[in-house]
Design brief:
Helix content: 10-25%
Shape: globular
Strand order of the largest sheet: 5-4-3-6-7-8-9
Structural class: alpha/beta
CATH superfamily: Vaccinia Virus protein VP39
CATH class: Alpha Beta
Number of strands: 9
Largest sheet: 7 strands, mixed
CATH topology: Rossmann fold
Length: 218
């Protein structure tokens, strides 16, 4: 996975590469798809969710490049949104000082806690709540990481970033001309505004909490 997918997708940050070597992906998958743990596919993870919440583990090459795009520092405080079963949290935990994993579903939250314990992760906290509301009690964050595609609803999360803080996600662009276009994007909070820049082309399942409201058309 690391040699054939991640290194060949312009992931050059050796700390990021080392985390992917250290954290076993199969731990975070249901038994039915553990044989595919090191494939280059997004894998569905629904077992364990109490309310039928649907999640995917991002393909390893997309996840690695997105983590690299966040420009993590050892002293960073991170909010990991839609953490699913905790794979991204386990990876990020080895690259920062403190991380909070946010899930909307208590079943997933329990899985995250068990999986992080199995990986000996000690600097992570698991919380539940609406994804688009973030987790204000631990703000402000240096980095907010979103595991999935977004169309809208990021303003509350921007308010939970420190000045100079970064938010990375896969942004889906709505509209007739480019309904299926999406890119990995890094947002950065300045003193007076939030700037953004494209990182690379990518796609992911849309997170319902960040879905753009339908517009009425005459």
């Amino acid at each position: 996975m690391v040699d054939c997918q991640i290194r060949t997708f312009d992931v050059t940050d050796q700390a990021v590469v080392a985390r992917f070597l250290d954290v076993p992906r199969e731990i975070f998958l249901p038994a039915r798809c553990r044989d595919l743990a090191y494939s280059d596919s997004a894998l569905e993870i629904t077992e364990g969710a109490a309310n039928g919440v649907w999640r995917q583990l991002l393909p390893p090459l997309v996840l690695a490049r997105l983590i690299q795009g966040a420009s993590l520092r050892p002293e960073d405080k991170i909010l990991d949104i839609a953490a699913g079963t905790g794979y991204s949290t386990a990876l990020l935990a080895g690259l920062c000082k403190d991380i909070t994993a946010l899930e909307a579903d208590a079943g997933f939250a329990s899985l995250i806690e068990a999986n992080l314990q199995a990986c000996n992760v000690s600097n992570a906290h698991v919380v539940t709540g609406p994804l688009a509301q973030g987790f204000d009690k631990s703000a402000a964050y240096d980095v907010i990481f979103i595991n999935g595609a977004v169309e809208a609803g990021l303003d509350t999360l921007f308010s939970q970033l420190k000045d100079g803080g970064r938010l990375v996600a896969i942004q889906r662009f709505a509209g007739e001309a480019n309904a299926h276009a999406s890119k990995a994007v890094r947002f950065e909070k300045g003193a007076h505004d939030v700037s953004s820049r494209f990182l690379f082309d990518a796609s992911a399942a849309l997170l319902k909490d960040f879905e753009k409201a339908p517009q009425f058309v005459f």
